Amino acid sequence: RKAISDKITQIVRNSNVYYELEAPIKRSNGKPVLQWSVKGNNSSEEEVFKVLKAVSSLKYDPDLVQEIRPIEGSGKTPSKVEFHLREETYVKSLLNQSDNEIPVERSHQHMVFEYSSPNIAKPFHVGHLRSTIIGNVLANIHQQLGYQVSKMNYLGDWGTQFGLLQVGVELLQATDERIQNAPIETLYKAYVMANKEAINDPTIADKAREYFRQLESGNQSPEVIKQWQKYREYTINELQTVYQRLGVAFDIYDWESLYSQKHITAVLQALELKNLLLPEKDGRKVVEVDNRRIPVIKSDGSTLYLTRDIAALLDRWQRFKFEQIFYIVENGQTDHFKALFQTTWRLKEEIDISKLRHVKFGRIHGMSTRKGQAVFLRDLLDEARDRMQEKQAQSPTTKVDVDSNEVADILGVSAVIINDLKQRRQRDYEFSWDKALQMNGDTGVKLQYTHCRLYSLLEQNENIDLNNVDTDPNCLQEPEALDVLNEIAKYPQILWQAKEQLEACILVNYLFGLSNSTSRALKRLPIKTEIDSRKQQHRLLLFKTAKGILKQGMELLGLKPLNQM
Ligand code: ARG
């Protein structure tokens, strides 16, 4: 595929015509065919036909391409060009893992992904869970495709609610030790307590506001500031253990409070200079976006979420000169990101609006644990692990020591991740433990199970030499074998599609397909009882390739592929 597309690119580059691979691979008279459609960007039919001719008359490797068929389209049917491939070369390239590498095109482009981004005072909720796992896979796919990627977590540690948090810590009389031991839970308790007390005691809200004002204006005592940094540090430490379970690692931790004082003043001046800052009667200052007036400065002079986000975006532009930046944040913040992108773009035109992407997602309903409504992510993952352990203990096929927490944890996390990523991200969905943890059907447990089967098959047949197999397509003619080959052939295009649409479900559903066709092939294509040793080799090579792709795909999704369960 790459050999052909590299050639076509030479011709198409200087025209208004573009081309795309139609279907991953189709078979015509049992032979593999790659079909590209050729379309015009406001260009005439003649121009398309000219390109079609030029593409068809290029010289291709005769070992690879047996025949080229240009098909002129008309009206609604697009023009196409079909490449009939030589079966031997095709099968050989699919089964040779080094040929299977994904074509990398624009590796110099820098993509920044900001995801997870929980708040220190408030608990990590399911919205943050979704952001974390969706952001992780999208960043991984870009990385796999050769882009330069930065994975960033932007912690919320600023705003009046943090004044409340501080008051809460005092009310709770939480010691430093207690906070260090269980930062997320303790700080949450403090926050809840302050909110509750504030209902009866109006001085609490005042105190919180004053506290935050001092912090923001830089007049807080060094001890308080130190304490503040400690909360952040403890929280990051605890978060990291959860991220580790989810297969997530960040390159960069930033936080909102980085953007106070100096940055904000610069933003306000720039807005002023471009006449974008409008005063309101009540002393607030606003920007106008889509005829809505959105505040950036409160009447007491303190800044808002949006103001800090503008400062942060300008700063990120300086630091990364990104090609694109992706914010993986729930649907509910759509207006915020509209305002952020439009305002920043007006401030600095080189940060073109096309570089700024809000990757939205819907809600999960009904996600609760035996403890009650899920508040802490850790509880949720623990519950997945415990339920998995119970299932493992009951299952007759379990091969590992069921007391081993690790396997149950990996399975539980796989279930939670796949259950989330298998639908389009903007859809809201209802969470069900039974569905998520199923062994059969489209679940994370199923993917792990297929991976384990392939692993043990390869282990049992280690004695079969897979080096220098002279590929012969006749050894893989059963429909089950052809199915798996087809799935293997689709993989690179699946990654590009998932990247284009920013949809992890494209990869997830592909892996279900790969896993299903592999399971069927495992039943129908035995190795031990096959007497033809060439067939044995080919089958094993086929399963090895399928396993390689399954493993890589699972890892891109944040799963840790198991060898035994
Ligand atoms: N901390 C925010 C929240 O929990 C999400 C931050 C999203 N990112 C951003 N740059 N605004 O709602």
Commentary on this structure:
The chain is of the alpha/beta class and 565 residues long. The chain has 19 helices and 17 strands. The strands form 5 sheets. Strands 1, 2, 3, 4 and 5 form a 5-stranded antiparallel sheet that branches. A hairpin with a 7-residue loop joins strand 4 and strand 5. The two termini are 37 Å apart. Bound molecules: arginine. Keywords: Aminoacyl-tRNA synthetase, ATP-binding, Ligase, Nucleotide-binding, Protein biosynthesis. It comes from Musca domestica (House fly). Its EC number is 6.1.1.19.
Attribute tags:
565 residues, alpha/beta, 5-stranded parallel β-sheet, 52% helix, Probable arginine--tRNA ligase, mitochondrial, ATP-binding, Arg-tRNA-ligase
